[in-house]
């Protein structure tokens, strides 16, 4: 022991001089501005309850139910708790391990004279022994490997918290999109029912004209074909609306029977315009980027752990105990033991070197994931901005198209009744009107979902919060 003690300061000095690997360059540089046109917004900053800007009480309630009942969110929360426990486990070796124990034993000779390996003998056939001990063991973190393991677990915990936020953001955006789908498909079913009524009214007119000899059997057959088509489209629209409700209920973690939505015109639903800010702010807004950055920091710490494992390790120990042949003598013979052990890997068939190479390759993989997350985040915002700009332009033209289609159908009906127009013109105006009505719903849905996409791309008002104690 006396020979070993002088080398301890040397080992500690070497540990203090050990260099950490240089931080990995991420190569992430945001653009100066967005390429796509940015809409003016009355939001100074994104709010975390962004869905309330849509002005739908139904959507507000669905979001709260999804937060409480969605299984993906629950899984992400459980993973965050696992990571928190892993952090505690990883940090434990940085402090000494302390144990205490009490032991009682009895050795008895059943027959014979005993032997030299036994304390019991023919003269003393029963031996009692009592022992208590208190021991401390400490692994000296010479090369920073234990601290690096704790750092890796800490960053893993942060990553799991950020991933939980990213999962929740994705789920809430998906709930909003599915809700908009339900509203749009309900509107399409309503339009299909109105169009069926219109087609039947025209059919009655054609049949009346046919009975009067003013319409041909071909015209009657053509209009009946249109009525049959509308009869087919109506249950199809209702089926798609029912399927959308099932998808929405699944996101809530509820049976579809529990889903109740207030009826209302889909085109009355408004959408907000999010404040896109500047690209440099995006890296702090997105929980998935924060998670990827934390995973990268965890991988860097894993490299330090693997490098430290290639170097010698030092373990210190101390034991204080006492014992006797009777319980009353338990504390009469105290003793102590001090130990120090220095161990270095000599030959492991390349295992430790291979582990170092593995974690270095893993670090490169996580770095590329981080870079890809940044590129994808900028692309998400650009795509949402482009969609909003393009859809707003399309809706301006489509509004005029729908107004003209209504007027054309009205005039064609009047002229057909007066005998000044053929049924072919009336049929064509009907189809044009139906298509314009369907397109109006499609563009309204796409525009509302583009707003959802922009809020999601901008992080939904998320900000990194201090970790819980």
TrEMBL record:
Its main location: membrane. InterPro entries: MdtP/NodT-like, OMP_efflux. It is a lipid-anchor. Belongs to the outer membrane factor (OMF) (TC 1.B.17) family. It comes from the Bacteria. The keyword Signal applies. Residues 1-18 form the signal peptide. GO terms for cellular component: cell outer membrane. It holds the Pfam family OEP. It is found in: Cell outer membrane. GO terms for molecular function: efflux transmembrane transporter activity. Keywords: Cell outer membrane, Lipoprotein, Membrane, Palmitate, Signal, Transmembrane, Transmembrane beta strand. This is Efflux transporter outer membrane subunit.
